[in-house]
From TrEMBL:
UniProt biased composition (Basic residues): 1-11
Secretion signal, residue range per the UniProt entry: none
Biased composition (Basic and acidic residues): 26-37
Native species: Brassica cretica (Mustard)
Region listing for Disordered, in residue ranges: 1-37, 70-89
Name of the protein in its database record: TLDc domain-containing protein
Record domain TLDc: where: 120-298
Record's compositionally biased regions (Acidic residues): 78-89
Lineage: Eukaryota, Viridiplantae, Streptophyta, Embryophyta, Tracheophyta
Highest taxon of source: Eukaryota
Listed InterPro entries: TLDc_dom
PROSITE patterns, per the entry: TLDC (PS51886)
């Protein structure tokens, strides 16, 4: 009996040892299962990363652009990451600029100061243009007629004497018999010297001759066909501003005078000068004088005093 049991037990153990293993699954199915199990966490990771980047980009976009500029760039969640980045960069480049209102320029009309007497040579438009060319030091002062041939006579010595009524810058105006008006800004008093120039670089010469060329360097033009004068400021080439002599009065130099008047104020000449870089101020180099005026720029407090002195007449000698 015990022997039978022993043999039965041995047979069972032998059967268990010799039993084949359970059938294995198909190798290809196992590989597919492994790939699926490996891809699922990667898909989850990619999904969460894309979702995080998308919301982070929207947050940055909302912070970067205020509400009024949100319409300038659009983020499309369906596009690829590269497309979104390109579209976002394009939005940064195409920000609309705010339209700035251009400042309004108000041009104020020039108010000319009071003038003591009507000029026989300067029209209102010419006087306005010359006024803008004056140094700021004398702008705003009243104009006083210090000398004129029609009031004080044709005498260069009288012109010199009247220029002493008010020292400083004065405007010399000459008219010829052909209708041209020209002259210059001089430094008063005009004192006759032995060929010694006087004045500063604040002086200039001018002409209203029609068709006047625009001039050379350092020339300021105000001009020409409209009847407004052409103004030639100092070029800095020399200091030959004003030359006063008992025999003549001359403006400019360096070759020839820009303006020359004889002692009787009957004849004169004009040519190119290096001092002002001007062309001939008159219609021809030699001309016959019709009228001469000298205007001073006086403070308001001294206006009445200088005006009364300037109106004291000299012996008048008129020509036809």
């Amino acid at each position: 009996m015990s022997k039978h049991i022993y043999m039965r037990s041995k047979a069972v153990h032998s059967v268990q040892r010799s039993a084949p293993p359970p059938p294995l699954q198909d190798e290809s199915k196992r590989n597919q299962l492994d790939c699926v199990t490996e891809e699922r966490p990667k898909e989850k990771e990619s999904f969460f990363l894309s979702w995080y980047k998308h919301h982070l980009r929207n947050f940055f976009h909302a912070v970067k652009f205020p509400k009024e500029r949100k319409g300038t760039s659009v983020v499309n969640p369906d596009n690829d990451d590269d497309d979104e980045e390109n579209e976002y960069d394009a939005g940064l480049e195409k920000k609309p600029m705010q339209n700035k209102e251009e400042p309004t320029i108000v041009v104020q009309a020039i108010t000319l100061p009071e003038i003591s007497d009507p000029s026989l040579l300067l029209k209102e438009q010419s006087r306005r243009s010359l006024y803008t060319s004056l140094p700021a030091l004398v702008q705003g002062r009243k104009w006083v007629l210090l000398y004129s041939t029609w009031r004080h006579g044709i005498s260069l010595s009288t012109l010199y004497r009247k220029s002493q009524l008010w020292p400083g810058l004065s405007l010399l105006v000459v008219g010829d018999k052909k209708g041209s008006v020209f002259g210059g800004l001089v430094e008063a008093p005009l004192i006759p010297t032995d060929y010694k120039y006087q004045g500063t670089n604040n002086t200039f010469v001018f002409t209203d001759k029609s068709g006047q060329p625009t001039g050379t360097n350092n020339t300021f033009v105000f001009t020409d066909k409209s009847g407004q004068p052409t103004v030639y400021h100092s070029t800095g080439a020399n200091r030959f501003y004003t030359l006063c002599s008992k025999d003549f009065l001359a403006l400019g130099g360096g070759g020839r005078f820009a303006l020359y008047l004889d002692s009787e104020l009957l004849h004169g000449s004009s040519a190119c000068s290096e001092t002002y870089g001007n062309s001939c101020l008159a219609n021809s180099q030699d001309f016959d004088v019709k009228e001469v005026e000298l205007w001073g720029f006086v403070y308001g407090s001294k206006y009445d005093e200088v005006l009364s002195l300037s109106r004291k007449t000299e012996t008048i000698c008129r020509w036809s």
